[in-house]
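User: Run a structure prediction on this.
Assistant: Running it now.
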Amino acid sequence: GPGHMAQVAGAALSQAGWYLSDEGIEACTSSPDKVNVNDIILIALNTDLRTIGKKFLPSDINSGKVEKLEGPCVLQIQKIRNVAAPKDNEESQAAPRMLRLQMTDGHISCTAVEFSYMSKISLNTPPGTKVKLSGIVDIKNGFLLLNDSNTTVLGGEVEHLIEKW
């Protein structure tokens, strides 16, 4: 039945770092008789993870007790700020840059900081964008430390999040 298809797809998806609920997998499956993981990912990219995601982040990820996260895992960017610049000058090119990202697995939010310059992420990266974390991501004081080598921007456009933004 469809439950089995979702399980098979779910296993392949989580290997690629996508943690989707069974309902989420069904919502992202274009044709029920041909479950193609790549098709599911294409639809999931443009869907709010809060509606299709399955919790995989540790509940205490922000507590300072969790020291690392093991990828691959896909998270959704909710908000980006440049914490190195004063609030009224975040867009300035001259200001130093250290981005702080609020991200979610759809259920639990976590905060990440740009540990070294990330070429594919900026203040213009819209909320709803999916990023894939790979390997072991260090966490210091509750902040995930991101850089170009452990973070891949997958893209995706979630219309209602971009409109609010």
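The first helix runs from residue 2 to 15.
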